[in-house]
């Protein structure tokens, strides 16, 4: 499960975003620069050590968001044997958790804006730690799945809260670098987590592996308690509240809670149905469905003939996903810089969406390579290459779409990030239920061929309409200006 909707910014995006809320904030900072520079409550004036430790704590939480949700991906065979169920059924224990990750992010947005960053970061982290502990101690599949589902609901918060924390704590010039560093947690987490889990499980059992995960969550939670601080800061809207009170959201913001919650709840709903976000969200849903299906079900195939991988081998295969994700991120990052420089004199935000064409080709080709390799029982290297190509396409596509959406709506970046994350997880939730039966009925080759075709058709039906919508909007604005 790929991140994040992970948030990828370039320096050009930060400059372009300043035309909206960023411009207002930068002007405000310019007008009050002397006051702000002396304000000890402003997180941007904190010491480098304090900011660094807070950011490292955020990174550990974000790494666990997806990495811990698919932690058991390499352990489903052992669990199936213990609970006397099929491996395919055992693998569905992650599905509800993946779905609730999207909705958990949506629910978090109004709370973050009303009560501040720290309490909405800390307490879901504490709850998630106990949900992982509950999963560790479970004695049947139903109980285990319930705890894993709640883990997904509460554990997704760092994927949303990281953006406002970085926005609060760093200057606009530092945003691109820090967001890109933070975003890497969404790339490696979904593949590194299952790999580590498998290595631990191979030397012990799945309960020990989840016990280690509980301990890791405990360490991360302690780091949040020790190094986490409230970063919300608006002149006239923040006070020098006590450290203890900040953990409970007391005095973090002076905003009226009821109206703030209502405003941001309405805003999230409104933005879900904004045409550009709706179209690009559907594109994300389709392009993420099949790669997440691979992530959650690949062990079923690797442990079966003709491959017969052991737990170590299946866990090591996850590094193909890491390689593909990092390559996809690199393509998206450099494409964003290149497209801006090429069209800087006539810049239009939707040009970033041209970054989806090559990735979709890679994704479709990877699905074919992956499916046909397994269909004909060829060497496992074909599986690895196919998975690399799939992840290049998946991550580079979200880079392009996130860049467009967050540049278009910079003043609602947290809300937009949560919405894109919701679309991603909806696709990941569904695929685990119908893909195994579909493969059994029609075979690997045909199924993955159809998936490749669906990806291409879906992107062709969603991305070009956004270009047309943007063009009509510019013409309408131009006509109104002339009138």
From TrEMBL:
Location of the region described as Disordered in the Swiss-Prot/TrEMBL record: 19-42
Membrane spanning residue stretches: 53-73, 93-112, 119-137, 149-167, 179-202, 208-229, 268-292, 312-335, 356-374, 380-406, 413-434, 446-469
PROSITE patterns associated with the record: MFS
Signal peptide extent: none
A single GO molecular function term of this UniProt record: transmembrane transporter activity
Pfam families, alphabetized: MFS_1 (PF07690)
Cellular component terms (Gene Ontology): plasma membrane
Compositional bias (Basic and acidic residues): 24-41
InterPro entries: MFS, MFS_dom, MFS_trans_sf
Record carries keyword Transmembrane helix: yes
Keywords: Membrane, Transmembrane, Transmembrane helix
UniProt subcellular location: Membrane
Protein name: Major facilitator superfamily (MFS) profile domain-containing protein
The species this protein was found in: Penicillium flavigenum
Lineage, opening ranks: Eukaryota, Fungi, Dikarya, Ascomycota, Pezizomycotina
């Amino acid at each position: 499960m790929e991140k994040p909707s992970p948030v990828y910014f370039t320096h050009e995006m930060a400059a372009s975003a300043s035309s909206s809320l960023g411009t207002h904030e930068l002007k405000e900072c310019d007008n009050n620069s002397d006051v702000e520079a002396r304000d000890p409550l402003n997180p941007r004036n904190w010491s480098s050590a304090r900011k660094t430790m807070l950011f490292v704590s955020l990174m550990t939480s974000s790494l666990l968001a997806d990495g811990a949700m698919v932690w058991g991906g390499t352990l489903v065979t052992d669990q199936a044997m213990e609970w006397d169920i099929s491996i395919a059924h055992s693998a569905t224990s992650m599905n509800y958790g993946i779905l609730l990750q999207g909705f958990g992010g949506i629910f978090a947005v109004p709370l973050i804006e009303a009560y501040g960053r720290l309490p909405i970061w800390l307490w879901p982290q504490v709850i998630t730690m106990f949900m992982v502990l509950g999963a560790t101690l479970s004695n049947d599949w139903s109980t285990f799945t319930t705890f894993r589902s709640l883990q997904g609901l509460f554990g997704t918060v760092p994927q949303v809260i990281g953006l406002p924390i970085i926005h609060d704590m760093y200057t606009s010039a530092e945003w691109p670098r820090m967001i890109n560093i933070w975003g890497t947690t969404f790339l490696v987490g979904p593949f590194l987590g299952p790999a580590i889990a498998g290595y631990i499980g191979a030397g012990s059992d799945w309960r020990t592996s989840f016990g280690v995960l509980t301990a890791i969550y405990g360490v991360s939670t302690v780091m949040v308690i020790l190094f986490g601080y409230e970063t919300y800061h608006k002149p006239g809207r923040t006070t020098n509240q006590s450290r203890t009170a900040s953990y409970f959201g007391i005095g973090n913001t002076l905003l009226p809670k009821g109206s703030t919650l209502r405003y941001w709840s309405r805003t999230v709903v409104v933005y879900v149905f904004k045409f550009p976000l709706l179209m690009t969200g559907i594109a994300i849903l389709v392009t993420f469905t099949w790669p997440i299906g691979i992530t959650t079900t690949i062990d079923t195939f690797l442990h079966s003939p003709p491959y017969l991988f052991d737990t170590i081998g299946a866990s090591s295969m996850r590094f193909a996903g890491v390689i593909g994700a990092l390559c996809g991120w690199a393509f998206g990052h450099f494409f964003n810089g290149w497209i801006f420089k090429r069209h800087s004199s006539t810049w239009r935000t939707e040009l970033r969406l041209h970054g989806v064409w090559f990735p979709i080709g890679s994704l479709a080709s990877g699905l074919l390579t992956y499916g046909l390799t397994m269909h004909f029982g060829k060497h496992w290297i074909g599986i690895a290459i196919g998975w690399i190509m799939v992840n290049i396409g998946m991550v580079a596509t979200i880079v392009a779409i996130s860049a467009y959406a967050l540049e278009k709506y910079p003043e609602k970046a947290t809300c937009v990030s949560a919405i894109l994350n919701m679309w991603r997880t909806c696709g990941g939730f569904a695929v685990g239920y119908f893909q195994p039966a579909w493969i059994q009925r029609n075979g690997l080759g045909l199924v993955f061929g159809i998936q490749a075709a669906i990806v291409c058709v879906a992107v062709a039906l969603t991305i070009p309409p956004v270009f047309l919508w943007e063009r009509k909007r510019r013409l309408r604005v131009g006509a109104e200006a002339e009138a």
